[in-house]
UniProtKB/TrEMBL annotation:
A Pfam family recorded for this sequence: LRR_8
Keywords on record: Disulfide bond, Glycoprotein, Immunity, Inflammatory response, Innate immunity, Leucine-rich repeat, Membrane, Receptor, Repeat, Signal, Transmembrane, Transmembrane helix
Identification of the protein by name: TLR21 protein
Transmembrane segments: 533-554
Keyword flag ATP-binding: no
A single GO cellular-component term on record: receptor complex
Disulfide-bond pairs as recorded: 27-33, 348-377, 427-449
Protein family membership: Belongs to the Toll-like receptor family.
A biological process from GO: inflammatory response
Species: Rynchops niger
Amino acid sequence: WRVWAIYMVLAANLSEEQALMQPCPSCDATQFCNCSSMGLDFIPSGLTSKITTLNLAHNRIKHIRSQDLQQAVNLRVLLLQSNEISSIDEDSFRSLGKLELLDLSNNSLAHLSPAWFGHLFSLQHLRLQGNSYRDLGESSPFSSLRNLSSLHLGNRWFSTIRQGNFEGIELVDKLWIEGGNLSQYEPGSLKSIKKINHMIINIRSIKVFSAIVRDLLHSVIWLEVREIKLEIEKKSLVQNSTLPFRIRKLTFKDASFTDQYISRIIVLLKEITSLQELEAIDCVLEGNGKWNIDEIVSSGRSLVEKVSVINIMILNFHLFLELEGMESQINKLKALTIASSRVFMVPCKLAKQFSSLLYLDFHDNLLVNNRLDETICKDSWPSLQTLNLSQNSLKSLKQTANSVTRLPELINLDISQNNFGEIPDVCAWPKNLKYLNLSSTQIPQLTTCIPPTLEVLDVSANKLQEFGLQLPFLKELYLTKNQLKTLPGAAPIPNLVALSIRRNKLNSFSREEFEGEQVGAVHLSLMECHRSLVVSLICILVFLVILVLVALGYKYHVVWYLRMTWAWLQAKRKPKRAPPKDICYDAFVSYSENDSEWVENTMVRELEQACPPFRLCLHKRDFVPGKWIVDNIIDSIEKSHKTLFVLSEHFVQSEWCKYELDFSHFRLFDENNDAAILVLLEPIQSKAIPKRFCKLRKIMNTKTYLEWPPGEEQQERFWENLKGALKS
């Protein structure tokens, strides 16, 4: 039995080694490596720097080792979701500096380590949901993820968020927290994030919801709250928060409301003055409209401009009240969607109060013609331009048309997917109607019931066998999925631009169907005939013009002039000279790098070791590291009694000690010529100085300067003169 036991241990170890050495067959010679759903217990070996995408999802991997991904240095996408991962070595992702997406969702991670993400500098998308961790630790696991764009975390055990958990994240496009059992939230925990475009949070606690909203008022643009059971909350959602707020849209999904809370939430949300859009999707309303209208009205007008209610379940919808008294809360609304919610009418009195509404969507409800006649009564919806009544129970096209004639501003009408069956010969329509959707309405033919003002007509998926309407303004015609055997005539629709006639029964074409302007008589512009060629030529021309301008700018030093002018204008705003108490140096020294040996070993030693010593400012030694060089120069000149120029052929030929140092001349000579001391290290002709330094050329022609002599006796005299000039 001992031999058998040893054999089993060796076999197990050998099996594990073989598994570790087994490569993924789809990784050979490709940048994309798909190893998903292969029953792998380990990350396969042989991963190279060629791989950019590695899919290991839906396997049985339990542990990620340090060496598993060490060679995959060019990996952009790593998918590890739906495994059994419970442990990760701290440096497992160390070599993945180019990784952009990491999915560790639906595993068995009981904690999150900041070390895992410490070297993922390029990471944009991180998915951590569906694990077993209860919190994010004492600090932030994400402090190194400066480029993070989307983060999805949380699970059914996730219960605590602490201050500092999100430090390091400043801007994020989408943040999703699954916190159905989130019970502890430290106020301020999400305040470190400066901007969130869209945040989704699954939450049940109303207290946690209120605290999170207060933290997000200045950062989130769209907040989506899921699974919450809203109860009465007396505290303000904004409390002592300062304006302006950033939140624009609030969505409730899979939420549960009561009549009492509806009243309270309407009042509370008015305090968020930036809120413009409200959504309720797949929600349940446990009530019948007995809202506290007095409390709602007394809290002031609503600033919300768009409301969407989609698939809301009202348990006693047939007993729902008319919401009388809500008029002041809706007269500023511009867009309203109530879809898939079993709506069968809107009371006439309420409909008249939507005075600013431009867009109304009632698709997939229970509207019938009699109720529609009451919903669109006289003087109701006075500004409405777009109306969607698709997927209702309308039966009469004539009655529908008569109802919408009461909407004088109506432009777009969608009444598709209603079972009209028949179409009358004559109908009355709004005079401005331009778009009409009659698709899937079971109409067998088209008559003069169709308004002649239309620009877009959709009659797809009907039983049409011909089309012969006179529609002089029509631009788009959709006839897909009918029974047409011939094309529509061109003469009745002269302005047609787009025609869709797929899935019909076309089998022949007559000469009359193609009558119109002859191809030979049409004269199209060059742009219409060769659009791509013309665009390419324009791009090439623009590129050549830019290239010529760059070349000319380089030749004539345009960039230099612009930079110096900008720096000079900035300097003009400063005082001409610093107060005596701010003078730190006797002289600022401007010199060529090629003359640094004489300046630093001869002149500096002579002057700084004199009695009394002179204080010199050298760019190598005294400039502030990290500060813009022009700012360094300006500050050094202003803090110096004199400016000393060491001129030589090197000084001239080295682009004047780089263009940035030449700013010293630009400012100095504009202000005070007496502050300049010129030292000629070697003979130099003024005509050798570039013309753009005209002031320096003029000074060399009009002002005395010191020349460095070759003899020692003359050098003593030179130093005396220089020291005297510095003291003056």
